Amino acid sequence: MQTIGFDIGGTKIAAAVVDETGREFAETRRDTPRTWVETAATMNGAFTELRDACPGVAAVGVGIAGLVDRSGRLSYGPNLPGLQHVDVLAELSKEFPLPVVVDNDANVAAYGEAVHGAIRGIDDALLVTLGTGIGGGLIIGGEVYRGGHGYAAEIGHITIDLGGPLCACGERGHWEAFASGNALGRMGREAAAVGDAPSVLAEADGDVAAITGHQVGQAAAAGAPDAVALIDRYADLVAIGLANLANILDPSAIVISGGLIALGDVLIQPVRKHFLLRIEAGTERPVPDLVAATLGERAGVIGAAALARRAAT
Ligand SMILES: [Zn+2]
User: Fold this and answer.
1) Under 8 Å between Cβ of 62 and 8
2) 170: Cβ–Cβ under 8 A, 6 or more apart, which residues?
3) Amino acid 9: pLDDT
4) What value does the mean pLDDT take over residues 208-229?
5) Cα dist. 71→38, 68, 76, 87, 137 in Å?
6) In the predicted model, what is the mean pLDDT of the chain?
7) What's the CATH code, domain 125-294?
8) In what order do the strands lie in the sheet with 12-18?
């Protein structure tokens, strides 16, 4: 069965036709417009293009960056102000002559990794995305766990330090303010500003303000001790949140996604080391496997298409 997956982000709308093996057939990509009316028109154009290429498509799945309630309404979407409070599922059901499902982007990515990616065949798993913030998706019993209202797995906003830095959501001390990809960049800039990260500074051509998590990762991958030390501190901050979640959920595996995954074991190994120390009774029990995502930025469209297929069968 072929279905269409949409991934609606703050800047781009990606869409593709995907079959039950996870193979992508046609794909398209457009800028995200400002208003819902324009967004619906853009999605309609993409839908028409994809269905012309693959006339047999049976359903449409949509992943949206923001809080999506159980009725398919975007309750909160700071990166998609034009879609805030829009009943996306109801609107798209009028737009497309096929069954439609709508969910949060990280839930969709988790489902994609569960059906076609790094946690394939694992019934109980957690997806953690380290990017601008920290996103989460929870797979329980092979299905996306949504909670009572649809807002489950907003894992970036667990508080790990009452007096910590401000989170993008306006509260203090949330995990994503410490352990997102952006937070790694901030750690790099702070270290470089006081002379503690010369190799990272060199990666940014001497410009402290230009340092992001990417430069820290590059320097660490090259083996520079200052950058390796930064990654180790960052890995512990990642591990603290993972251990909190694993103590509650006991997943079989945790899949880590986001751009930093390109670092491979330079990041994953120190996270594993700290995770073992942070989780309850780490030496006395099987601990969740920490694995890197395999679908990359395609997890959104592939997962949305898989969710649509799940709903249509
Ligand atoms: Zn927050």
Assistant:
1) yes
2) none
3) 94
4) 97
5) 22, 8, 14, 8, 18
6) 96
7) 3.30.420.40
8) 24-31, 12-18, 3-8, 60-64, 100-104
Tens digits of residue pLDDT in 86-101: 999 999 999 999 999 9
What tokens does 249 get? 């959920």
How far, in Å, from the CA of 173 to the mean position of ligand 1?
A: 8
- Please tell me the distance between residue 88's alpha carbon and the centre of ligand 1 in angstroms: 24
pLDDT value at position 52?
97
Query: Cα of 226 to ligand 1 centre, how many Å?
Result: 29
Which run of H or E residues covers position 126? strand 125-130
Place 220 in a pLDDT band, splitting at 50, 70 and 90.
very high
User: In the numeric block, which tokens belong to residue 242?
Assistant: 């993972």
Beta bridge partners of 290: 254
CATH H-level superfamily of 3-116+297-312? ATPase, nucleotide binding domain (3.30.420.40)
pTM (predicted TM-score): 0.95
List pLDDT tens digits, range 228-259.
Answer: 999 999 999 999 999 999 999 999 999 999 98
Q: How many CB atoms lie within 10 A of CB 285?
A: 9
- Cα(22) to centroid(ligand 1), Å: 33
Quote the ligand 1 centre to 161 CA distance (angstroms): 12
Tell me which H or E stretch contains 139.
strand 134-140
- The beta strands (E) that lie in 227-303 are given as 253-257, 289-292
What CA–CA distance (Å, rounded) separates 63 from 105? 4
Residue type, 221: A
Sketch the domain layout of the chain as residue ranges.
3-116+297-312, 125-294
